[in-house]
Design a protein that fits this description.
12 strands; alpha/beta; six-stranded mixed beta sheet; binds NADP nicotinamide-adenine-dinucleotide phosphate; 345 residues
């Protein structure tokens, strides 16, 4: 199939949310070839006017007809119900939720890492979890050069990863505490997030001692790198940072790799900025990654307890590369490869 000359009809589902708002902005900024962009959200927002005069529509059988591409960021249950319906109506779906990521017939794709996985798509394409996304961008050049035996990961995740309600909760509690008032009770999190660190990012399923966020890091990393043998240990922590996730990652390689070699590989890789001069105070920071598309890597050093392991610090804007930017990059690759509207039956 050749790309449409008059542009695609694109649905953005979850268009009023943090990720959806960013996706609408990026579709415009990156000049995605759309002849029409239609925002969808819940019934609550139907009729609302967004930037650029776009009017929010509700999801219904008659409103989802006639799209080439639908990009979802409206949570797992909305994707579960409506993504197959968009596919049935002829669209290709790029989904930000966790609903389809581990399904065998759904490619889980990071544009710099495994774009070829798009080629056999069956209608739905999954965008990985934000903390997995930024990490695999940094790990891919290392994996290709030296293999990866084991990862030990600690995340420091921003509240924007929980949606608007997470940001509102951090700011509301912080304002109250700074004014000397009693902070509002936690609603988005199990405990107060302001001036705290919660070893509880995501949810514990009954009887499980890992959160779903930790299991996503394990399972999605293996699927994207195509290597189920990588051993992975993850602890995900929610911290009082508004936006951009940070991660301390210990990487045990299969063949020797020095910190200097790792730095060179990362400098040459797409989508990565190496910031690594600790004496001068240069290393990635959440407040500097906020608003940027790149993945920032620094503090690259030999693990003093293991001569075939490296430690590194990886930071990225979870709403951009961790969600919206990658989704739009996938739409661009689908367009370039003539895969919008084309799928393996
Ligand atoms: N935040 C991140 O860092 C991040 C990263 C990767 C993936 N994601 C995924 O992206 C999705 C959205 O995250 P977010 O941070 O943008 O959340 P958010 O700010 O809370 O926005 C949620 C969006 O979903 C819409 N929505 C909720 N229920 C709906 C329904 N029943 N039907 C249609 N639309 C519905 C909301 O519409 P209303 O305004 O009408 O309620 C809103 O547009 C989630 O699946 C999340 O897991 C988020």
């Amino acid at each position: 199939m050749t790309p449409r000359e008059d542009g695609y009809r694109v649905a953005v589902v979850g268009a009023t949310g943090q990720v959806g708002t960013m996706m609408l902005r990026l579709l415009r900024e990156r000049n995605f070839p759309a002849r029409e962009i239609v925002p969808f959200a819940s019934e609550r927002s139907a009729g609302r006017e967004l930037e650029g005069g776009l009017i929010v529509r509700p999801l219904a059988d008659d409103t989802i007809e006639g799209f080439d591409l639908a990009i979802f960021s409206a949570g797992g249950s909305t994707s579960g119900e409506w993504a197959p319906r968009f596919v049935e109506a002829g669209a290709v779906v790029v989904d930000n939720s966790s609903k389809w990521r581990m399904s065998d017939d759904v490619p889980l794709v990071v544009s710099e890492v495994n774009p070829d996985a798009l080629d056999g798509h069956r209608g739905i394409i999954a965008n990985p979890n934000c903390s997995t996304m930024q990490m695999v961008v940094a790990l891919k050049p290392i994996y290709d050069a030296a293999g990866i035996e084991r990862l030990v990961i600690s995340t420091y995740q921003a509240v924007s990863g929980t949606g608007k309600k997470g940001v509102d909760e951090l700011l509301g509690q912080s304002r109250a505490l700074l004014a000397g008032d009693e902070p509002p009770d936690p609603r988005a999190y199990a405990h107060r997030i302001a001036f705290n660190a919660l070893p509880h990012a995501g949810n514990f399923a009954a009887g499980d001692d890992h959160t779903d966020e930790e299991l996503k890091l394990v399972n999605e990393t293996r699927k994207i790198l195509g290597d189920p043998s990588i051993r992975i240990s993850a602890t995900c922590v929610r911290v009082p940072v508004v936006n951009a996730h940070s991660e301390a990652v210990n990487v045990e390689t299969r063949s020797p790799l020095s910190p200097e070699e790792a730095r060179e590989l990362l400098r040459a890789a797409p989508g990565i900025t190496v910031l690594d001069d600790p004496e001068a105070g240069r290393y990635p920071l959440a407040i500097e990654a906020d608003g940027q598309d790149d993945v920032f890597v620094g503090r690259i050093r030999r693990d003093r307890g293991h001569d075939q392991a490296l430690d590194m610090w990886i930071v990225s804007d979870n709403l951009r590369k961790g969600a919206a930017t990658n989704a739009i990059q996938l739409a661009e690759v689908l367009h370039e490869r003539g895969l919008v509207g084309a799928r393996v039956a």
